[in-house]
Amino acid sequence: MNAPEDPEREISRYREGPDLLEQAVIGLRDCQLDARPAGGGWSVREIVHHIADGDDIWKMGIKMAIVTNRQSLTWVVLIVASGDLE
User: How much is the pTM?
Assistant: First the structure.
């Protein structure tokens, strides 16, 4: 994974994420948050929790990339691909 061409734009998009997610689910009732698709899969609530958990993991990688001034987050991609986070 290489550094974005426009880091400021990507940082801005990253910062907007929580607000966009909140707007998407605000006003949903518990039964809507917990409903699962007919064919199986995750509920909205599970997806939101997954995004929040994943965000914590990626923050670590982003901070490391900033501090080390690296152009790549290869080590994070390798950890995720290996399944060690599950």
Answer: 0.63
